[in-house]
Amino acid sequence: MSNKDIIILGIESSCDDTSAAVLKNETILSNLIAGQSVHEDYGGVVPELASRAHQQNIVPVVDQALKKANISKNDIDAIAFTRGPGLLGSLIVGTSFAKSFSLGLGIPMVEVNHMKGHILAHFIDDPEREKPNFPFMCLTVSGGHTQLVVVNDYDDMEVVGTTKDDAAGEAFDKTAKLLGLPYPGGPIIDKYAQEGDPNIISFSKPEVPGFDYSFSGLKTNVLQVLEKANRKDPNFVKDNIKNICASLQGTIMDILFDKLVKAMRHFNIEEVAIAGGVSANSALRKRLKETGEEHGWKTHIPKFEYCTDNAAMIAIAGRYQFLEGNFADQSVSASARLKV
Ligand code: KG4
Ligand code: ZN
Fold first, then answer.
1. Count of C-beta atoms within a 10 Å radius of residue 134
2. Which of 43, 114, 167, 286 has the lowest tally of Cβ within 10 angstroms?
3. Assessment of whether the complete model's pTM goes beyond 0.90
4. Distance 308 CA to ligand 1 centre (A)
5. Measuring from each residue's beta carbon to the nearest atom of ligand 1, which residues come in under 6 Å?
């Protein structure tokens, strides 16, 4: 290993995935994720159970990440952790772990904003992908956020549009729940939608000024449409699940792309990326490519494993902070509502 190599251990624990990753320069050596099946019976993440599971998982996950990367803890130059936003009890586990690790090894720690991490995942080395050039627009769509972000530099980002209520991921998950599908509903709707016809059922789209979003009306509309259809045919949902999912997904995509196209024009930006859990959605990935070709944009679609929550994105975001000498000290505390 040359003297110039920088090794960062990334830790992510903002919601229900405990993840640890090892980054050497801009290359990921390992990225381990322990999911939490404990929430399945509840139809959503139970914060108290999430923090407890993080506490059980964090040491073995870090241990495995180091083993898989084939490094010892003494090779690590800094530890990067998610300070927020997210569930407080979950964030506290990762933050406390990072503090003890930093203190024990005498190495610096860097705090990372989870949403910036999703965006900066695009800078992880990948022979199949070109990295974005600044400035670019990022549509960040996850279970907790929906943001249009103008990314001017690694640490210079401006949120120009956001949701007024539910996030895009919540739109998927909450409507899936209305359809009787398990949590998280996003990937299941995606799967059914691929075999459905989006033109049989139609859902309404909101009128929101500027580049902001709203998804709560869609949930109400889905409920109304289903109730009406169920009165005529009690098997409606069961018999039409694929078409319902295709319409739902199509409507969410129309809502997302309407504002994205407007924002790209307004800010005169030519490169665009997607990030966050919902960027794993097959329709979103396809539509970004097509819309990009239509408008002459350069498009950036993340590798599947860097869409949903992972520590690789925290490690790469931490690297840029490390290079700037932006270290956190032992007084740092988790912040559930940390802003981009
Ligand atoms: O980024 P993420 O893992 O966690 C948060 O930071 O929130 O995003 C999770 C969200 C969930 O709402 C999940 O349903 C959604 O991402 N999601 C998807 C797909 N895969 C994950 N939504 C639609 N289609 C998918 N294929
Ligand atoms: Zn996330």
1. 12
2. 286
3. yes
4. 6
5. 15, 142-144, 169, 172-173, 184-187, 190, 276-278, 280-281, 308-309
